[in-house]
Design goal:
Strand order of the largest sheet: 1-2-4-3-5-6-7-8
Number of strands: 8
Strand content: 15-25%
Helix content: 25-40%
Number of helices: 7
Radius of gyration: 25 Å
């Protein structure tokens, strides 16, 4: 007598499906928790601009400071600019904190400065191209791109679309050694985050003719007016001297740019 064919037991397959569903939900939960964590972290501990220096910029009749499409734009009140600088802030630093440091080239050299507001306060999460910011000042024909700390790393990624690069207490993570555009690296002798050693270790990623200026007594936070920063060194340079040194270095670069 022939045995009747067996019907496959559906239970093992059902158990596999349940396990896969549980694993999928767990992975989704981990990813969601990570995204929420990044969102919360990006909004906690944002370093605000110091009011006093910012008020001085607002009161300077040589400078017009406005908000345009989410970016802070500083323009010379006297007329149109030929040269502009797109500046990317450091991680979780308010855009206004850099207005005092950059105001000197606006007032003295007629440079238009566009200070971006990176998505989530972190430049790495901001995919916008350089044109998103240069389009805010259509009259400018020559554009530099620069940034402070992690903002400088992002500026390096945008440098191919600019006419020059300025690093403020920063260094590149991408190889720009073959670039023919001018590069200026500004750093501080007392920087506890972007230390002089880190700047030196990464200079090979920049062109051989890159100009390196180490400002004596400057710390990491000396490149913005947002107060002290954890892990930084102690600055021994005054705010006035810091702005003067940065302005002088930027002015030399601007003067050398082809028009």
């Amino acid at each position: 007598m022939t045995d009747a064919p067996r019907t496959p037991d559906p239970r093992p397959r059902s158990r596999v499906r349940r396990v896969l569903v549980v694993v999928g939900l767990a992975v989704l939960g981990i990813l969601l928790a990570g995204v929420i964590g990044i969102l919360v972290w990006s909004q906690v501990g944002v370093m605000d601009a110091e009011q006093g220096p910012l008020d001085e910029v607002r009161a300077d009749e040589r400078i017009t400071m406005t908000e345009i499409d989410g970016s802070l734009v500083l323009e010379p009140a006297a007329g149109d600019s030929e040269v502009g600088l797109v500046f990317v802030p450091g991680a979780k630093v308010e855009a206004e904190a850099y207005a005092p440091l950059l105001s000197g080239v606006v007032a003295g050299d007629g440079v238009t400065v566009v200070i971006t507001r990176p998505w989530l306060n972190l430049a790495f999460f901001d995919p916008r191209p350089l044109s998103s910011f240069t389009d805010l000042a259509p009259g400018v024909s020559t554009w530099l791109v620069g940034g402070h700390s992690l903002g400088g790393v992002r500026a390096c990624q945008l440098a191919d679309d600019a006419d020059g690069l300025v690093l403020f207490a920063s260094y590149c993570a991408t190889d720009l050694s073959g670039s023919s555009e001018p590069v200026l690296s500004l750093s501080g002798s007392e920087d506890g985050l972007t230390t002089p050693e880190k700047v030196d270790d990464n200079r090979g990623l920049l062109p051989d003719d890159a100009v390196f200026v180490e400002i004596p007594g400057a710390s990491h936070a000396s490149f913005g007016d947002y107060g002290p920063q954890a892990g930084d060194g102690t600055p021994t340079i005054s705010d006035a001297d810091m702005r003067a040194d940065v302005t002088a270095a930027l002015s030399r670069l601007v003067a050398a740019l082809p028009r």
